[in-house]
Design goal:
mainly beta; eight-stranded antiparallel beta sheet; Nuclear Transport Factor 2, Chain: A; 2 domains; Glucose Permease (Domain IIA); 4 helices; about 35% strand; 16 strands; globular; four-stranded antiparallel beta sheet
Length: about 290
């Protein structure tokens, strides 16, 4: 089954054809009757679905769609032969605009060269942060080779393409908080929920805005509290510390220096981009020399 046929079946209510194309492991978890009941209940009327994101991860490709009301979403994973290996539906919160305004400053991406947007966008279908006001407009970036994010044993940090890569300040400012001593987690193992940011740097910028760059590699942070930094200056290396399952950069801008009590802001990137889950993003604005 192709993603287009999948979408068409949902729009027509042809749930039986969809179910027959699911994997055996999926059928063991969800019966045919349960499958029909879930979809019939969720889609009260035949939806018009618009593709939101797609990306390849290992042997599967994930696609997500949103309906015309922007209140219902569906995600499905396809194996290379077209078998549906996973699927879920999700009610979406209405888009928030007034409570979380755009940043007044322009920001560059917190890295050089090409990275991959793992989480990012304006609803929880493409950005799991969205349901939490303190990180609603955050991004998670990884390195990706077009098929997967690692090359080597999956339980070793060194196998992950992002691990140890340089991370830069996205705008000029003054460091107001920095942590560097927290151990990196073992990939696909237990995450550190007690110290969710892991190793991080918080920079105060103009207009009372604060950038948070998190999950940095242990002992890699190069800046200290009170230090002034320039846009593009290296501040550390990408790591797997904190509430993280694999090496990635968590980046957001907030209206205060405290992570939990501040609200995240929509980021005005320069050049003007709006990364969304599944997109490769290239930055050479501040090439390292």
């Amino acid at each position: 089954m192709t993603p287009d046929i999948f979408r068409d079946c949902l729009q027509k209510g042809d749930y039986e054809q969809l179910y027959q194309k699911t994997s055996n492991s999926f059928k063991k978890k969800v019966s045919n009757q349960e499958f029909h009941t879930i979809l019939t209940t969720f889609f009260e009327k035949q939806p018009t679905l618009t593709l939101q994101s797609s990306f390849i991860y290992d042997q599967e490709t994930e696609y997500s769609w949103i309906d015309e009301s922007k209140t219902r979403g569906v995600v499905a994973s396809f194996q290379d032969d077209g078998t549906i290996s996973g699927m879920y539906v999700l009610p979406l919160a209405k888009e928030v605009t007034l409570a979380q305004p755009w940043t007044k400053n322009n920001y560059s991406l917190p890295f050089t060269d090409e990275w991959f947007t793992y989480w990012g966008g304006d609803h929880e279908l493409v950005n799991y942060h969205y349901t939490y006001p303190h990180q609603r407009h955050a991004y998670d970036f990884i390195k990706h080779n077009g098929r997967k994010s690692y090359d080597g044993p999956v339980a070793k940090n060194r196998s992950y393409l992002a691990f140890g890569e340089p991370v830069i300040a996205s705008a000029a400012g003054r460091v107001v908080d920095a942590v560097t001593h927290i151990s990196d987690n073992e990939p696909v193992g237990k995450m550190n929920e007690q110290q969710p940011l892991g190793n991080y740097v918080v920079i105060e910028h103009e207009h009372g805005e604060y950038s948070f760059t998190a999950h940095l590699q242990q002992f890699s942070v190069l800046v200290r509290v009170g230090e002034s930094v320039k846009a593009g200056q290296k501040i550390g290396n990408c790591g797997n510390s904190g509430n993280s399952s694999e090496a990635h950069i968590h980046f957001q801008v907030s209206n205060g220096p405290e992570f939990q009590s501040s609200s995240s802001l929509r980021i005005q990137f320069q050049p003007a981009i709006a990364p969304i889950r599944g997109q490769f993003i290239y930055s050479n604005q501040y090439p390292l020399t």
